[in-house]
Amino acid sequence: MRRHHDDEVHEDEIHEHDRGLSYDLPVLARRRMIRLMAGVGAGLVPLVGCTADGTSSPAAADSPSASSTGAASSVECATVPEETAGPYPGDGSNGVNVLKESGVVRSDITRSFGDSAGGTAEGVPLTFTLTVVDAASGCGTPKRGAAVYVWHCDREGGYSLYTEGVADENYLRGVQETDDRGQVTFTSVFPGCYTGRWPHIHFEVYGSLADATTATAITSTSQLALPKDVCDTVYATEGYESSVDNLDPLSLESDSVFRDGHDQQLAVVKGSVVEGYTATLTIAV
Fold first, then answer.
1. How many whole angstroms separate alpha carbon 192 and alpha carbon 235?
2. Residue 231 is inside which H or E element, if any?
3. What sign for the dihedral angle of Cα 7, 12, 16, 18?
4. Angle at 112 between CA 195 and CA 190, to 5 degrees
5. Three-state DSSP class for 162?
């Protein structure tokens, strides 16, 4: 069952699923209990760090323009935490269903597709690779032939298909089938930071491409978090001005989604503003 936090805060609107900390506490407690039970059931297996290639996470970079580590070096191989799809999924659960449209299966998600949309999302280039693995195998077995649907906001914080001004666009959304290594790679732009949420990328994992393009049988719904040092560097560039003030009062520890733990969701990010960034994350399902 999906949990529903508000994915965006408006002064004049409170979504049904934005009920505050008192609503979240029972859910957060349940997730912590599930993780604890998973550790006991696995016989207290050694902790491992998961990156896109299945190795432990590298050491922290010397500079945010060069590299930034996300996941901690010692992280239990457990199922990625279930998170909200938010108000703007585009998977048919909240209005429009982009998954059934021809053209959604693609690696470059910077441009809109179809006859009615022709926009391109601007921003600092970001290429991100997600590796889907079997949690029951200790993260050692890639999920070949699964599918991943991703979506995120543009540099102004707007979501295609929903936000005024970009509701006719469908950029920054796409689906791919995992390869023999369980990987999918998307070409995109670095998302902005909007009021009330830490910078993130949404994703849904499906058992197959057929399941994804019919929007059925979701295996997992979660979010990828981006490291603060990289966000600070990107948001100092043109076009991300509003993200600076929006990010300032936030932290991963206070974010409505990541505050109960983000070890399995914080991406490893490398690169620079000039050359673009790459992000990697392993998703255990």
1. 8
2. helix 228-235
3. positive
4. 40
5. coil
Q: In this structure, is the dihedral angle defined by the CA atoms of residues 264, 246, 193 and 244, taken in order, positive or negative?
A: negative
- Between CA 86 and CA 226 the distance in angstroms is 17
> Residue 269 in contact with residue 70, Cβ under 8 Å?
yes
Which tokens sit at 205?
């994992």
Pull the structure tokens for residue 60.
Answer: 């922290």
- Residue 28 backbone phi and psi in degrees, to 5: -65, -40
> How many angstroms separate the CA atoms of 33 and 70, rounded?
24
| One-letter amino acid of 81 | P
Give residue 41's pLDDT.
Answer: 36
* CA dist 59 → 63, 67, 267 (Å): 12, 10, 13
Least confident stretch, 2-6, 78-82, 150-154, 271-275:
2-6
Q: What is the mean pLDDT of residues 41-46?
A: 31
Are residues 283 and 80 in contact, defined by beta-carbon separation less than 8 angstroms?
A: yes
Token digits of residue 168: 């006719």
